[in-house]
Amino acid sequence: MQLIIGSAQFGRSYGIQKKKISKKVLEKIYYTCKKNKINFIDTAQNYGESEKLIGRSKLNKLKIITKLIIPKKLTESRIPSYLEDYFKKTISKLGVENLYAVLIHDISIFNNKNKDQILKFFNDLKKRGLIKFFGASVYSPTDLKVLFRYFKPDLIQFPLNIFDQRFLKNNLIKKLKKKRILLASRSCFLQGFLLQQINYNPKFKLKKFYSSLKEVDNWCVKRKISRLDACIHFVKKNNMIDYMVVGYDDISNLKNIIISFKKKQIKITKKFKNRNKNLIDPRKWKP
Q: Of 69, 65, 77, 153, which Cα lies nearest the Cα of 108?
């Protein structure tokens, strides 16, 4: 498994505490990655100025995975020109000639009318060496059923953490690996909620889930391990996952994540599985 650094917090406030990383820190992040042999960075079209900031820093020397949202109102005839324009603008902002992977950020865009044009465009990019992989970012196992109606992705990015264990059910990860699909987990800290101070008092409805967080904290305290270690190693133990995307608040936080990732495997329980989508799906977090 390899680490992929996230960049959602570069171009906008992100996560439970709405943190934003200063432009001045980007060079330090790059050299931290270089020192620790981290070769990948994850970004997206809708991460504010993230792509532009990466392009203006040495971070564009890393292998870049970016995510794309195709407007649903786009007519079939306009798809090729939209995608061409999108790709030119993206590599220009990033200051690169090619990308490691492009992922569809919202798979509901696919339908029987537009799938051929979308797939043809990205297959052509692969043939020309402009991208290595094409895939999708999904939110639930149900999304996979929709996705596979239209194509088999090279790479799938999906959420996995101590609370959200949906992709561990029914040997799903093993089944995906049998299809020779690269797997990248994300949200191991659940946008920072799993690392919150227990006495922190959020103003939004996640407050009602603090009893669940307290249970995790008590379990960690008894075993003398940090919640950061628990989050990292819960995912890391799944050796069929190729990559782990991690978010961080600052350079110190990133260094602590790297230290944790390099530790000998720590056994973490699965007993905190939570099915409540108001907790495990950040899209449902509302003020």
A: 69
pLDDT for residue 114: 84
CATH code of 147's domain: 3.20.20.100
d(Cα 283, Cα 263) in Å, to the nearest integer? 32
Instruction: Work out how many domains the chain is built from and give that number.
Output: 1
Beta strands in 120-181 (DSSP E): 131-137, 155-159
Q: What is the mean pLDDT of each run of 10 residues along the chain (287 residues)?
A: 91 59 87 96 88 93 94 82 93 95 89 86 95 95 92 96 95 94 96 81 66 92 96 96 93 95 94 91 76
Copy the structure tokens of residue 240: 């069929």
For the whole model, what pTM was predicted?
0.91
The confidence score (pLDDT) of residue 109 equals: 86
d(CA 7, CA 49): 10
Phi, psi at residue 127, to the nearest 5°?
Answer: -60, -35
User: What number of residues does the chain have?
Assistant: 287
Q: Identify whether the C-beta of residue 244 lies closer than 8 Å to the C-beta of residue 4.
A: yes
Q: What are the structure tokens assigned to 138, written together?
A: 């999904």
Range of the domain at 75: 2-284
Cα–Cα distances in angstroms (integers) from residue 18 to residues 10, 12, 105, 158, 263, in the given order: 11, 8, 21, 22, 29
